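Per-record layout

source: Tumebacillus avium
name: Tryptophan synthase alpha chain
length: 278
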Amino acid sequence: MTRIADTFKRLNETGEKAFIPFLTAGDPNLEVSAELIIGLDKIGADIIEIGIPYSDPLADGPTIQAGSLRALQGGTRMPDVFELVRRVRPHVQASLVLFTYANPVFQWGVREFFQTAQEAGANGVIIPDLPLEESEEALAAGLATGVDFIPLVAPTSQERIAKIVAQGQGFIYCVAALGVTGVREDLDADLSGYVASVKKHTALPVAVGFGVGKPEHAAIIGQFADGVVVGSAIVKKASAIAEALNAGDAPLAEAKKQELIEFAASLKAPLYPSRQEA
């Protein structure tokens, strides 16, 4: 059983749902990224997605694109992200998942990428722009290294959904809204039906992301999904840290770090009903 599978098994036994925050590595710098990952783990994040900054992030909206640009301008590159994972791994209980685009993985070498991820301490990989028809090597690398290759599923035909999830590893990442990442005011009215249609084709846990930005969203999704992914809303908080650091205001930067962690905790709370009752 992989670490991610064990995470969902543990949560399922207590009726809890996975809280999965996303951060871009190196935004606003690698030192702060390490602090935030450890901080998110302390407030109970179950899985932490770590975005590898990329110059052409097609699946991401303006908030995460800006975070990626800040990281790249600060000099963060692929080896730095692996080193970040290696650095924080001994200090966190959460599973760590790398979110990256296909081109950097192919440049690194697919098998080599998964192997390096495994050696650093990562537990999963998400490649949003890698189509099913080109994913055979990544699937094989995931199985060989024990680093789950986690598929993204968007609303599409049942036949297509079945093919995508059939070879999934770790969990299935359901895209809550078509288009790029970014906080939406309201969730799709038929999101629960869409998740149910995915669950018909897989025994793997199903997590929902893209557009999730409020505790109310997390509470709704937690009623029918196994996990909630929050990205843009957290990266927006990271941008405030960057602004404070750029202004040379260290106390404000510290306050903004704490604000991010507290915001994440507010999103996590609805997913842990048993702990709220305790």
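summary: The chain has one domain: 3-272. The first helix runs from residue 3 to 14.
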